[in-house]
Amino acid sequence: MMTRESFGIVDVAAAVIMQPDGRFLLTCRPEGKPYAGYWEFPGGKIEPGESPLHALDRELQEELGIQILHAEPWITRNFTYSHATVCLHFFRVIRWQGMPQAREHQQLAWQRPDQVTVSPMLPANAPVLRALILPPVYAITRATELGVPAALQQIELALQHGVRLIQIREKTMEKDVLQAFAEKIISLAHGTGAYVLRNSDTILPDTCGTDGIHLTAPQLMALSSRPTSGDNWCGASCHNSEELYQASLIGVDFVVLGPVLQTSSHADATPMGWRKFADLIRDYPLPVYALGGMEPDDQAIARELGAHGVAMIRGTSRL
Ligand SMILES: Nc1nc2c([nH]c(=O)n2[C@H]2C[C@H](O)[C@@H](COP(=O)(O)OP(=O)(O)OP(=O)(O)O)O2)c(=O)[nH]1
Questions:
Q1: pTM value?
Q2: Which of 87, 89, 122 best tests ligand 1's pocket when mutated (most atoms within 8 Å of CB)?
Q3: Which tens digits make up the pLDDT trace of 88-141?
Q4: pLDDT tens-digit readout, 144-154
Q5: Percent of the chain beyond pLDDT 70?
Q6: Across all residues in the chain, what is the average pLDDT?
Q7: 12 near 45, Cβ under 8 Å?
Q8: What is the pLDDT of residue 263?
Q9: Ligand 1: does its nearest atom lie under 6 Å from the Cβ of 263?
Q10: Cβ atoms 100, 17 nearer than 8 A
Q11: Is the distance from the beta carbon of residue 40 to the nearest atom of ligand 1 less than 6 Å?
């Protein structure tokens, strides 16, 4: 029987073991393995007949002596090494039993997403570390509808409730008003360490002080490469598998997929529902935010189905 391994693809399950304060565990590959001395997420090869989650549970027991109590599927990335092409199935492990111990005499290090202090890292893992910096909630402005003072108040409150990623999505706002609005948001957001992206359909220039761009789906489909330099964030709006594929091809940092549920901001759009959402993002390489009718409580279901988090326009006022 032809298996994925006979085509040279090695399936691997890997864990982002996360503390409530956002720190996660990296381990150093022991002597005797390819890339010994490189840092990686705990995990290992999936054996024939095993599900990725079972394989991960087995590996974490063998390597660290812990048992998974709650894990969420996250992203799935392929990478070609000289020894093999690996397909890495990442999970976020939120609860576990036991205290991680170095059962294979490997070094262990708890790290912060924005401040990784160990190296070298396995080459496949750079985008994974970058993805871990992304916060769980993506807030989208609606000042055209609310008026600037109310929109600023809503953003200020959202920042106080921990929101760390904001998109300015004012497509019809007059230039001077938009620039003043953007300046205020950027100053509020940067005061808390939050990132601000500008929607590519606004008239804000790329020198306006935002931390990157959010592409509309038509703009995403028209591009042949990622528009910003590596340091700037680049997100994209997707509604179907073609757009998701294009986003992964040009290598944006994350996507927003929807509408998942009915939403008054796009009342004429047919929502895809959670089942289709989960089907579309299964084995997808980039972090995905669910969009469309999202409320703060929807974070749990979105993550359970493999999303990175939720994007909200109205829901931010209920955080
Ligand atoms: N565990 C893990 N493996 C990774 C990561 N990133 C990455 O490219 N890999 C690659 C390295 C290896 O080619 C492959 C994992 O294979 P492995 O040899 O460590 O698997 P294993 O623990 O089952 O080892 P073994 O019993 O076969 O010796 O996946 C990561 O973050 N964690």
A1: 0.95
A2: 122
A3: 999 999 999 999 999 988 999 999 999 999 999 999 999 999 999 999 999 999
A4: 989 999 999 99
A5: 98
A6: 94
A7: yes
A8: 83
A9: no
A10: yes
A11: yes
Write down the ipTM of this complex: 0.94
pLDDT score of 1: 62
Integer Cα distance of 138 and 125 in angstroms:
23
99 residue type, one letter: M
Conformation bin of residue 88: beta by default, left when phi > 0, alpha when psi is -120 to 50: beta
**Token pair recorded at residue 204:** 């804000």
In sequence order, which ranges of 224-272 are alpha helices (DSSP H)?
241-250
Q: CA geometry: angle at 207 spanning 184 and 211, to 5°?
A: 65
Q: pLDDT, tens digit, for every residue of 148-183?
A: 999 999 999 999 999 999 999 999 999 999 999 999
Class of domain 5-126: alpha beta
What are the domain boundaries of the chain?
5-126, 137-318
Q: Is 46 in the pocket of ligand 1 (CB under 6 A)?
A: no
Question: String of b and e for 143-164 (b: at least 16 CB within 10 Å)?
Answer: bbeeebeebbebbeebbeeebb
Strand-pair category, 108-111 with 24-28: antiparallel
| Nearby residues of 303 by Cβ (< 8 Å), 6 or more positions away | 72, 92, 136, 309
Domains 5-126 and 137-318 are alike in CATH topology: no
pLDDT at 8: 82
Q: Give the class (CATH, top level) of 137-318.
A: alpha beta
Judge whether residue 75 has pLDDT over 80. Answer: yes
Q: Determine the distance separating the centroid of ligand 1 and the alpha carbon of 44, expressed in angstroms.
A: 5
> Which residue has tokens 């503390």?
19
Residue 157 has φ and ψ, to the nearest 5°, of -65, -45
